[in-house]
Amino acid sequence: MPNLPKTPVPRSLWMITYADMVTLLLTFFVLILVMSSEAQNNIYRMVNLLLRDTETKLNEYVKINKLDNYIRVTRGTKGVQLTISGEYFFDINSAEITPQLRPILDNVGSTIQQSKLLSVEKDKNLRRFYNALKKNNRTLNVEIRVEGHTDNWPIRGGIYADNWELSSARALEVVKYLSSVSGISEDKFSAQGYGEFRPISDNNTEEGRSKNRRVEIFIDADIAKSNGS
């Protein structure tokens, strides 16, 4: 049998196999990324539902007690927001928690304390959510921020030098009261005073100034890396 000449193997043939392998690896990593993104999306959907549940309960309290003219519950980028009229619940130039404000803050503190936001680890109905957080080395951080605001009329008399001090004092007093009545850890709270510098209405009218005198409570939750990760 005659010896047939050998057909030379193209030197670039190995690149075809290599390209196939790279394509498979890319497909695998894209699949992993998609699965990971979907898991993250589901986690954030659950956080949104927990915040919505808290918002609903606070809205029910406001409506049942006919406080709509003095308290507004909304949902924004900062979480669940309660806007409380400072005109009705604080004395002029004072940061003291009045008897009219105490039952409202009692309910707010109780609602937050009993909300599922703070019981993810213990609530058996949220076990899958808690396990998903652990699997992704994540934890649920809950934050309660209180912001004080005033109109632009200058302070006359009293112990506060200006509206900035007054608004900060009111925010801090609300934080202390909420932490005390709810038993929620102090490290979840923060307070900030903005004085007259973040108005929501026209300070040139009495109606506008009335709207600007307010305290805002924000209840928010976010996903963060676990300390042990």
Describe the 3D structure.
The chain has 229 residues and is α+β, with helices and mostly antiparallel strands. The protein has 6 helices and 5 strands. It has helices at 13-64, 86-89, 102-114, 127-135, 163-182, 206-212; strands at 71-76, 79-85, 138-149, 189-193, 214-225. A hairpin with a 2-residue loop joins strand 1 and strand 2 (79-85). Helix 3 (102-114) packs across helix 5. It starts with 12 loop residues before the first helix and ends with a strand. Residues 30-35 have low confidence and may be disordered.
Q: What order do the helices and strands come in, and which of them pair?
A:
Elements: H1 13-64, E1 71-76, E2 79-85, H2 86-89, H3 102-114, H4 127-135, E3 138-149, H5 163-182, E4 189-193, H6 206-212, E5 214-225
Parallel strand pairs: 3-4
Antiparallel strand pairs: 1-2, 2-5, 3-5
* Backbone shape: elongated
> N-to-C SSE series?
HEEHHHEHEHE
Per DSSP, what share of the residues sits in E-state strands of 2 or more residues? 15-25%
Overall mean pLDDT:
86
Which structural class matches the secondary elements? Answer: alpha+beta
Low-pLDDT windows of residues? 30-35
Rg: 28 Å
